[in-house]
Write a structure and sequence with these properties.
The protein has a 4-stranded parallel β-sheet with strand order 1-2-3-4, sandwiched between helices. Helix 3 links the parallel strand 3 and strand 4. The mean pLDDT is about 90. It has a single domain, classed as STAS domain (Transcription Regulator spoIIAA, 2-Layer Sandwich), CATH 3.30.750. It is of the alpha/beta class. It has 3 helices and 4 strands; from the N terminus they run E-H-E-H-E-H-E. Helix 1 packs parallel to helix 2. The radius of gyration is 12 Å and the shape is globular. The longest helix has 16 residues.
Length: about 100
């Protein structure tokens, strides 16, 4: 887990399905949030009901965009399904995961 205590994050709340039909709009939304963020963008995944390979690819793409800008894109409030997806694909280490504790 990455500690981001000294940074003031921008938080973006996602909800619903993250799939091939929603990724283009979500990518624009996340990149716009990156434009407004100073150092850290936290993507709240607590209300995400489904994420497929296209959604995961979109998250990876936007994470690389954040890195290219010298910023951090972190995830928080992962659902059990999202945690499992990151574990199965072995991509959990690509994202800082923030917890409430």
């Amino acid at each position: 887990m990455t500690v981001l205590a000294t940074m003031t994050p921008t938080v973006l709340h996602l909800s619903g399905d993250i799939d091939i039909s929603t990724t283009a709009g979500l990518r624009r939304r996340i990149l716009a949030a990156l434009d407004e963020s100073v150092e850290v963008l936290v993507v709240d995944m607590g209300a995400v009901t489904f994420c497929d390979a296209a959604g995961l690819g979109m998250l990876l793409h936007t994470q690389r965009q954040a890195e290219a800008r010298g910023m951090t894109l972190a995830l928080t409030r992962l659902t059990p399904q999202m945690t499992r997806l990151l574990d199965i694909t072995e991509l959990g280490d690509r994202f800082p995961i923030l917890t409430d504790s």
